[in-house]
Amino acid sequence: MSIMVNIELRGCSEDELIKICKEIGLKRFRAIQLFQWVQQKAVRTWEEMKNIGERDRQTLRSRLSLYPLEKVREQRSKDGTRKYLFRLEDSETIECVLMDYARTSSRDRHTVCVSTQVGCAVGCAFCATGLEGFRRNLSVGEIVGQVLDITHLVRQEDPDFQVTNIVFMGMGEPLLNYDQVLQAIQLLNQAQGLNIGMRRMTISTCGVVPQIIQLAKDNPQVGLAVSLHASQDEVRNKLIPMNRRYPLTQLMEACQEYTQITHRRITFEVALTAENAKREEAEALAKLLKGQFGYVNLIPVNPVAGTGMERPKPELIRRFAQVLEDAGISVSSREERGADIDAACGQLRRQWEG
């Protein structure tokens, strides 16, 4: 006797829903309707699916579970950034951030920074998330659900709102939850859903070498950002413990292989503190990145209680960037977003649980 397993609706592709509907005696068009309600219109309840009759809804509920995230807290920055703390079905909490960037064209850019784990096992020295340790990986539905629930919330104020970009650089290390992240990317990309372009999604990693190479082979259209933060193994070992397992030599080789396969530039992220924003570090970084197909994104650190790190002065950031540019490396400085609402990963969760 087989036991029917209840499946998470938000984690299902259109093809998976077609297969499930066939198994329970419903027509193909029902699956397509269901997928559009959940993934395109971002509804949170079965009752909102107006063109699906009550009888069919009950049949679907026998196989599928719909678990919207519970908004615990929302903070809004003066620059328009919104930070959300969501509660999951098992009462764990995660964060995600919506950042709006005005464009000169008719379409603004709405970027959602998505979490992929509850907590994080990496424990980077400058990150609030790592201070809380690792709880578990997020499911596909929980990853996608962050984008869907933000869409639902913002559409209450702006019915035409659409997420345009996704960055997997919230709580957790995305490449340590590899399969679920890639499935989430496929779902977010589907034409009958939110239809977010692959090239508008970026995975940020601290340097999980095997998965960087696997990502290049599995999904060459998605962007890659590498949290570099130091040019020497001795320093990076302290900042990013993962470096002890995959030191800089291995990481740079993996980055070379990634760009050879995908022909896409890598974003090398460098967190700048008052301590490391020095000319010597900029010169060493330029030497390390020589020959890499990528550019550097300088990130002045957000002050986080418990890390002891301070933001560098603007003139130090400019001098650091100039050294890289003089060495022929493209460089940008991340626009500060949401500093007045503690937008750094893990800060809101720590406040809530602390």
UniProtKB/TrEMBL annotation:
S-adenosyl-L-methionine binds at G172, E173, S204, S227, L228, H229, N302. Pfam families: Radical_SAM, RlmN_N. Its EC number is 2.1.1.192. [4Fe-4S] cluster binds at C120, C124, C127. Belongs to the radical SAM superfamily. RlmN family. Reaction proceeds by a ping-pong mechanism involving intermediate methylation of a conserved cysteine residue. This is Probable dual-specificity RNA methyltransferase RlmN.
